[in-house]
Batch of 2 targets.
Target 1
Amino acid sequence: MTLHSSRPDARTDLVHGTLDMLILRTLQWGPQHGYAIGQTIRAQSSDVLQVEAGSLYPALQRLAKKGWVTAKWGQTGANQRAKFYRLTPAGKKQLLREESRWTELVNAIGRVMKAAVAPGTEE
Amino acid sequence: MSILTWLKALKALTRRRRDEDDLQEEIRAHLAIAAGERMADGADERSARLESLKEFGNVTLTTEAARRVWIPWWLDALHDQLNDIRYAIRALAKNPAFSLAVIGVLTLGIGLNAAVFTMVKSIALTPLAGVDGSAGLGVVFGETNTGREVDLSYPDYKYIREHDRAFSGLLGSGLITASVGRGEHARPISAELVTGNYFQVLGVGAELGRTLLPSDELAPGRHPVVVLSDGLWRRDFGADPDIVGKTVQIKQYPLTVVGVADPRFHGTIVSYDVEVFIPLMMAAQLGLENTPLSDITTDRRTTILNVLGHLRPGVTFADAAARTGALWAALARDRPLTDPALRLRVVPFWQAPGSAQSYILPSLTVMGAMGLLVLVIACANIAGLVLVRGMSRRGEIAVRLALGATRTRIVRLLLIENLVLAVTGAILGVLLGRRWIPVLVGYIDTLAAPQRVFFNIEVDSLVIAFSALVACGSALLFGFVPALQSSRMDLVSVINEDASPRAGGRGRLRAGLVVSQVAVSLLLLVGAGLAARSFEAAQRANPGFDATHVTSVAVDVKQIRYDEARGRVFYRQLLDAARADPGIESATLAAYNPLNLLETRAQPMEIEGYEPSRGEDMAFLSNTVGADYFRTLRINLLAGRPFEERDDETGAPVAIVNNTLAARFWGGAADAVGKRVRVGGGDWRTVVGVAADVKYLRINESPRPYVYVPFQQSYRSSMILHTRGSVSDATLVARARAHVVALDADLPILSARLLGDEARASLLFFNFTAKMLLIFGMTGMALAAMGTYGLVSYTVKQSTHEIGIRMALGASGLSVVRGFLARGLRLGAIGATVGIVAALGVSRLLTGVLFGVGPTDPVSFVRALALVLGVVAVATIVPAWSAARTNPLSALRHQ
């Protein structure tokens, strides 16, 4: 899954929701800045998910607007200035909701994919 | 949109700058961190930065996407729009020739329409300046079953006013011609005799002093007061701040000024500039020209009042008509009418019968339609220019598309450019319209002189809104298709600099533009031709009298308070003096000029031995004339004799009827002589002569019955002196005046001009319509010629290569020109066919404003066709010829 698109309006809701969930999940272990969030998602997905900046930053703005994360300028370990995002209590609740929804979805898809007999092949 | 939404938007706007700076900084930080990590892995600084940037992607798009999260979509769109407008202005300024051409054409097109709309507005939408909601005023009047309009008498009006529940108030007013000042220097003015509630019903206030009040309507002759118009107060009294309480002479009768009306207000008679407002109770003192000196407060046969008022909220015109109709029926039961069966009608103000608005609106409607057609041509014209410009901008648009702009966005950008042009054109057009209209009105004014005319032609928010609408409409019209075309281009071919013209879509579009311009301009020219031909016909038409070398000098001896005996002596002496003048061949008196446009009051008539059928309208127009009248105006007598000096108060009562009346009641002129009639309830009169028909009111009227009575047997204080002479016209008028002044220097001369000039005013509407339509037709033609020329020369330029090859292969210049001409004329012929079909379809709508020509007049059609095809030919030959003369080698080398 590559969250890449040159046309911002082409992104679907599913992708939006999923990216939001991934970001919230990444922030569960503590505040991080934008670049680090992108790198973390990439590393944890073994380079499968590459989050484009063009998707990442609008998503962060969206989450901030909804009150799920807050942002604050700070210093990185390498002593560089960066804006750090932190999960809010509301964001934590949202993450739990998203996780259960996601699990349900994956299970549902799994059941379909694993079905042994194709329906309606009798005739 | 709620206030909360606005507040949120405002907040978003204010924090927007800060947020954006913050986001930019965040992105910089992101890039710095990313580059730092790459450098830590051993990359050099430059490549690290570049790699990071590449990985990040499109910074602007990211910023925009992030911004959209915070800003409401419409605010964002607004911001984009402003940017687009800024960009559009920059792009247009880069190509001033194109921009100026478009703005010029639009200014003309929108200016014409704004001018016509302002006239329509002045007549139908806001007809009375200074009166709120004047378009919604209702007019109450009587109508005979032949459709003749009758004003209301004061007693009838008062009954309706007292019992009516449909109107929030009903005023009555009668228009008279009066004079202000004394003697020869008196100035004729229009005056309204009004009921006490006049100003309250209209909602018009006083600028100084007070308006007239219901307490000014108590008893006849007891209210010698007057309200002046602001114009009169300034012109004749130098805006004297102490005018209230002073005495002014109106018709040489002293009236005390009680106030000056609101400066915007000019009375309730469209096209008249009413300058004084006098209580109706003073009618006997000031005199209504056409009315005997009866007590108007009790006489139900003196129908002098225009009655109007605002409908109550929720009451429709149909309701109002039903309610006043019921009142009228009750009134007729209580006090049976002496007049023929009348019914009351209630109509909106713009339909008021016999009013200027009802005369002018049909012409204006035609002009409005023509104006829009001119605009359509202008748009087709500009579409051609935009199309050509689009070709030269293909590179720019291709780059925009390549950079990821959507097609919608490109179309929007191009449309905004057009809108910027259109709005500029609209602003200039309105300014131009503002300059044109007073010129037109001034033209009407000179024809109406010495009385003043007034139209509510102020450019107000209605005109502005209309022009804005027209501007937006035309921007869409001329911009949409070319913009769509531009955005649909083939990127690869443009980037490969493939400039060879493609046949197909664009060529067809250009051809379509030529065809439509030709068609519409043909339509316009047919309209203009028909109007011009009917004006010619109206001028040539025989009105039944000869107005050349005849004067018309109007006086009213009541203005110097002559009684009947003195008045008779005065007119006797005046005629004697005039006839003794060697420069004057013949002199006579008349109550009305022929062709006088205004509906003079019809007199009820009885024909001996004729029993009118129930409800038959037996009221006919009449004139009071002196001896020698028919000789002076050269009206033919078909039978019997003219009036003579012996037809005086001691002689047997006589009358002369016109041919139509004689034919209707006695079967012919010869049989009419000797029969007896009664005119206006007087004595039985013997018909002594039958006169040929004359155009009494308008040149395009159908024959109507008419009766003449001799002046000496039917005295009036207000008469017109006609003199015919062989001296120069100016001398003739001056001498006629001099004879009046010599008799009494105090007598105001209400007007002194040639009868021909008076008659010319009755041609005003034909003249005006013809001139306007001619202007429209020629403007449309000129635009279409320019457009065709432009498109053909563009096509020729595109084909320079082809021409070069053909000429190199031995084709002559002539054959090249012939080829283009054939193509041009083919398009012209298609356009002309479409135009003729359309013209045949719609010219019937012109019937109401035409005179003496049918709506399918072949001469007008052929002229228009010849002109259009000629212009297309010239517009094709000129560019083709210049192309054919170029050196074929240079044409080939170009590529």
Target 2
Amino acid sequence: MTTFKKYVGAMLEQAAREAELDRSTTIEAQHVLLAIAARPEATAGDVLISAGLDQRAIRAALARELEHSLSAAGVSLGAFDLPPPTSAPERATKLGASVKYALERGVHGIRKGKDLRPGHLLLGILQAEVGTVPRALALSGADRADLLLRVRHTLSAAPK
Amino acid sequence: MPSAVRFGAQDPADALAAVAALRRLADQLEDAAVEQAMRAGWSWPEVAEALGVTRQAVHKKHAKRLIAAGVTLRRREE
């Protein structure tokens, strides 16, 4: 199995845990982003961490995005006082549309499987112009264009 | 005149994101509300009908989770 496939497999496994914590029935791009940030030793994780986007910062940005988006519909999270459910839903195994788009975008234009690198996954996630991830990053003040440049830079460097 | 800013009303990005966020919130509320109802002794058919879904759908979605949470579930025919 190629390094890319192994990396994507490991990231999706971690992302499934993030989806569970988020009570999501599908694995979405934000869960993969959190998984990538959990591996600072990997190049892609390092790009996020060095831009101040560790897991804690990403979680805060995602929470802010949810509040912000709900408020556009006049809804506040604080308006509901149901006790939180006591256990997590089934582990999500289905990939959400946002992850499918990210994978498509990330590997677009790569002709040979051996040219695929772990950074292509993060590239695909950061390339989304709309959706939860770009909105969360914008609300947190992160510079997505700069992040993209940094990822592309690591991808153009000689493979380790 | 109230001067509250109503962001989102004009911006399609905000409106679409609101729809996505409401779906996420609805899923979370469903988990909490179903658990609360089952703890209060509601049956699967009652919960299903109240949610507007089939018994099979609600059972498939929530049974394992509630059993894991230690909720005593009423049998269907009760």
